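Weekly structure sync, notes
Attendees: PL (lead), two postdocs, one rotation student
Agenda item 3: pending single-chain targets
PL asked that the sequence for the first pending target be pasted directly into the notes so everyone works from the same version. It is reproduced below exactly as submitted, 289 residues in total.
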Amino acid sequence: MRKLPLVGGRGAVGRRELIRLIGGAATVLASQPACKSDHAQSGVFTDDERATLSIFADVVIPPDEDPGGAALGAVAYIERLVTAFDDPSAVPAIFANGPFSGRQPLPDAAGHPSANFPQNDFASFIELDRVNEAAWRFKVLGSAGLPNGGPNDKLKGAVLSIKDQLKNGIAAAIASADPPLAQQSPDDQLGTFNAQPTDFKDLMIELVTEAAFCAPEYGGNVGLGGWKMVHFEGDSQPLGYSQWDGKNFVERPDSPLSTANPGPDPSPIGSDVDALLKLVIGFLGGRTA
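Predicted structure, written out during the meeting:
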């Protein structure tokens, strides 16, 4: 596995190890707006802007034997998000419905996996209540998304939309890149990214991470590639992790609750991560043995 060139500096920690260490998949999954990867919005960004987004997506999550941020659907995810409120007659594509995605079978009468699967409820969207709609309009569209502007505009000035923040950041990056980004090596692209303002870098990292590790109905995680990269099993309902056998709940042998999954650790902690954990534990006053 190629080592991850950590954003902001150099590191020897492997990509999977780092992402697992920070809990990326589990943290991001619970809070994502729904954005379908097959709904790329033409006209949102120019070809040069989309190319720059793809390059920076691969800076945030570099490709190796696993797909990088671009292949995991970052651009389509972003385009879908920034146009979530464009159609006033449609339910905004923010939160996917539920309870089931259709990836797990229904249990049979004994609680075992059956051959029947529920429909994919995640493919539809939940209508937002008044408070959530205002909050998400402000998050996505900035001050312009609310009738009276943002709540702190008089103190801090108007908040830009996600689209405008990205367009401004991309324009600055293109202007500063020498040679052009497409002609740079991955290391030079990393250097160009790191030279950009912190707010732009933080936004890109947030959006690319969301795209990589959300449920696939949310736009990214193409082919479940993000989940596979961190060995996340995904949503488990309606099958769940235990089945009723008529008398007791019995754990699934392939995914037990009381013990680790059978078989070897698919991505054991390496020496670099082990050393990092010991350093953090020691800094916090804990013991490693």
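Discussion points:
- The mean pLDDT is 85.
- The radius of gyration is 21 Å.
Action: rotation student to compare against the earlier draft before next sync.
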